[in-house]
Amino acid sequence: MKTKEKKALCIMSGGMDSTLSAYMMRDEGYEIIALHFNYSQLTQNKELECFDAICKDLGVKERYNLDLDFFSKIGASALIDKGIEVQTSGIEDGIPSTYVPFRNGIFLSIATAIAEKEGASTISIGVVEEDGSGYPDCTDTFIKSMQNSINLGTKDETALEIKMPLVHLSKSQIVQASLELKVPLELTWSCYKNETKACGVCDSCRLRLRGFKLAGISDPIAYE
């Protein structure tokens, strides 16, 4: 009898962290179901381009690309509202202007519905506490609480596990792990502001560049 293939629903932004998480799931033997969100972020087109390229490299057969236009109506984040400045002064105390209200909670809720429909046993999300910079929805504690909640609200046989393999890693460790798994980092995008050449000064670019520097290699994407 043929063994039923295990499936992982991978939330993938096109960034380095969620991409590595998806490759880790593949390395563990999961069939990857890819999920991407367009939520009116400043780099929406670039992120989608990266997502498509990464899915092709991964050989993903099933992918979901969903539009969430309500985030633009809520605003309240520099990633969405052009009237709010994207931080370029480095990581500061408090929650950064780039925090999108309850974004990961919403993403995980939608991912749960798809995972249940697809018969997946696992949801993968590339949250990193260092990268979260104070985001309350990027913590180990929050993700574990979401796992408990979604299993209370789904069928008994669904029994989903949310995997967050990078949550306690540094950016340099993420770069090294990506190299070991031959993740195509040149296909990923981290910049909060630009879609052609990365700005190099937003918090996300700073963290990424520092990670590559500490890992002792050059970042393969272009910067201004």
From TrEMBL:
Gene3D superfamilies: HUPs (3.40.50.620). It catalyses: 7-carboxy-7-carbaguanine + NH4(+) + 2 ATP = 7-cyano-7-carbaguanine + 2 AMP + 2 diphosphate + 2 H(+). Transmembrane segments: none annotated. Its EC number is 6.3.4.20. Zn(2+) binds at C191, C199, C202, C205. Keywords: ATP-binding, Ligase, Metal-binding, Nucleotide-binding, Queuosine biosynthesis, Zinc. It comes from the Bacteria. InterPro entries: QueC (IPR018317), Rossmann-like_a/b/a_fold (IPR014729). Pathway: Purine metabolism; 7-cyano-7-deazaguanine biosynthesis. GO terms for molecular function: ATP binding; ligase activity, forming carbon-nitrogen bonds; zinc ion binding. Its cofactor is Zn(2+). Binds 1 zinc ion per subunit. GO terms for biological process: tRNA queuosine(34) biosynthetic process. ATP binds at M12, S13, G14, G15, M16, D17, S18, T19, L20, S21, A22. Catalyzes the ATP-dependent conversion of 7-carboxy-7-deazaguanine (CDG) to 7-cyano-7-deazaguanine (preQ(0)). Belongs to the QueC family. NCBIfam families: 7-cyano-7-deazaguanine synthase QueC. This is 7-cyano-7-deazaguanine synthase. It comes from Sulfurimonas hongkongensis.
